Amino acid sequence: MAKKDGGKKKDGKTAGKKGGKGPGEKRTGKRTEDRRVTPLRELLRVPEGERIDLTAYDAAATPGGPAGKAAGLAATAALGPRLADLQERLYAASTAGDRRRVLLVLQGMDTSGKGGTVKHVIGLFNPSGCRIQAFKSPTPEELSHPFLWRIARALPRAGEIGIFDRSHYEDVLIARVRELVPRKRIGHRYGQINRFEKALADEGVTVVKVFLHLSYEEQRERLLERLDNPEKHWKFNVGDIEERALWPAYREAYELALERCTTEDAPWYLVPADHKWYRNWAISTLLLEHLEALAPAYPPGDFDVAECRERLLAT
User: Fold this and answer.
1) pLDDT in tens, 262-303
2) Packed helices 276-294 and 69-94: angle between N→C axes, nearest 10 degrees
3) What CATH number does residue 85 fall under?
4) 218-240 pLDDT, tens per residue?
5) Do residues 241 and 141 make contact, with C-beta atoms less than 8 angstroms apart?
6) 241 Cβ partners below 8 Å, 6+ apart?
7) Domain count within the chain
8) Dihedral, 164, 170, 171, 174 alpha carbons, nearest 10
9) What is the extent of the structural domain holding 73?
10) pTM for the complete prediction?
């Protein structure tokens, strides 16, 4: 992940990996910006066990990406056939008992592109094999249960690709900023989330958690676009202006979530979101890399192919 020049951590150290090497920087003398050298999931992975300062990361960066918008749009479209093929293989494998599935978790400030990702990236898949869930404010029934209850009910089934537009992380984000629950309880939730995600991984769920890193300035422009276009007024919420006043508090809440909940089983990926074309390409590529790592295969038939063919020709 590209880091802003002069970016410092709160304790005065350079943000990112130890020794000043963070996601998207040089390692072992090779340029990690080159996708031919380093997988994107290594470039964008949030470092585990280190403090995160989001002001040190450039939301307009395009680490590992194509050279510009036109190339990015073409590259994203080119990923479609391979993604669709891997999705079909994953689903086909489930018919033979393979329990594996993928869960894409999308988090980010308002206008960072969670809905846009669902539209442009998930559109590359067969919708019948996707399970999409947008999490809003909890209902009275959901509030009567532990906070992970509604999440568990929305998980993808074997062979599916699940997409969460917001997620269980709202319970350590807005709940923290708006002081909806005591801080001590929120502190316990990070551990609960890590144990929950570890259990998912053990059950065959590949969890791909993406934080859409949007700049304060870019959010203003996107909100203004909604105000200036009557056809987008339905997407505008007056409360978004109030939420902008809480930007520093939300940034801190996200930093804590990224620090405390990036693990070997379920790491966070920090995707710069100021450029929509890069956001779509990066998330498509992350999904491709994870699906390729799963290497799902079509199951063999449990019948005699030659015999069935002979019988069919006889009809």
Assistant:
1) 999 999 999 999 999 999 999 999 999 999 999 999 999 889
2) 30
3) 3.40.50.300
4) 999 999 999 999 999 999 989 88
5) no
6) 223
7) 1
8) -170
9) 50-313
10) 0.87
